[in-house]
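Entry 14. Structure prediction run on the chain below.
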Amino acid sequence: MLNRRAFLRYAAAASAGVVCVGCGIRQAFGQPASGPTRREVTIGGRRVRTVDVHAHCAVPAVLDVVKSTPLEGPARRQLEGNLGFPVAAARVSDMDKDGIDVQVLSINAFWYGADRDLARRMFDVQSQQLAEMCKAIAGRFLGYTPVSLQFPELAAEQLEHGMKQLGFVGAAIGGSVEGEEIAAPKFDPFWKRAEELQALVFIHPQTAPLSTGIAKRIQGSGALGNVIGNPLETSLALAHLIFEGTLDRFPNVKICAAHGGGFLPSYAARMDHGCAVFPDQCKGPTLRKKPSEYLKQLYFDSLVFTSEALRHLVNEHGASQIMIGTDYAVPWVKGPVDHVLKTPGLSDAERIAILGGNAARLIKVPN
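Output returned:
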């Protein structure tokens, strides 16, 4: 893994125009243009272009924007941790070994507390640098727009700019915004534009212990703030999108939820019975179908760790709704392609869909 100093060298090289398409990143780091043999995945004699829709990066130049603000700490923690792993030769080498052809890069949102001016400046820097990262090695990277969701109308504008001007495929957002559910009506301008643009909206939990209200209970051993808090945050976000009618108002919006969608996809049938058992607690809009059926119009990444968990996710919601997710560069999963290939009961067509076919259908994947 490259350290922060190397990451800053990359940023400086990119800003100075040193990073050229194809070989430039390796040369910028003084590394040879050639690398280890790239694993190519084939199924039934057919070459499969694999796409990881859940991969992280960070933009060092944002430090200059947030210096001496409350956001400086979160920005530094991203850059100094695994999430700061740059788009560089070591990352491409890992992708080649894993058989990942394309990563879709996201920046974990830490800026929802920023005022409008700071949010605009952060977006300008991060979106431009992310676009440059995606172009630095041809055909290997795509990006999600880092929208300022705390200002929904602005986020809608940023999403359109990101997709039309910078080549992004959608947006990466948190599961909540400073204590507000992303299903709240105030966010409808963003969802409306996302639906119009057919953007892929990737939902990833942020500060889950606080946003879920479990900060006190996850103290102690086990990294529970992450292993329980993150999937819980996603589960709550998806449930609110269902029960508050967001998915009825915007039925064609494309949403992909991280970490297999959290806990909800494995226990969705309980939602179907909840309002029948507790009708006085279901005061929201009248849904057009059973709550569990909305999950069939959502997408989930494959980060569920075991073959049985992936088989169950496919059986519940269909192979057409699942795409590879690695959480790179956090080392959650080894052999993400083999995880799909070795899951029993999947047909070749289902494996092809999960490995890259679904992503190619939803976003424009480079050849």
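Residues 116-136 form the longest helix (21 residues).
Filed with the rest of this week's runs.
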